[in-house]
Give the backbone structure.
Amino acid sequence: QLQASGGGSVRAGGSLGLSCGASRNMSSANVRGWSRQAPGKERELVVAISRRGTINYEDFVEGRLTVSIDNAKNTMYLEMNSLKPEDTAVYYCFANFQGNMHWGHGTLVTVSS
């Protein structure tokens, strides 16, 4: 139900954008956001948006990433700036609809130094 796109390769300091299209009304989700999994590491939360629209970024974001939702398009975006090599990971969008967690298939972001 979630289709992620975007990502790719960029040099450190560059920018990339991700998008996540949903087959359901994204605004009806209890929580939605983005997680990532770096090579050899566990999946970690990047940002979460509550149903009321409260946005919580993980500390490592440091203002470099911005999440947004276009409710008319049922699409969530993640704008990533000032990327660092440690941001290299597979990025997953997620949304919890009525207690059921849904995940996008993941999209790879590679940041070279």
Remarks:
- Residues 48 and 56 are 5 Å apart (CA to CA).
- The first strand starts at residue 2 and ends at 6.
- The mean pLDDT is 95.
- The two ends are 35 Å apart (CA to CA).
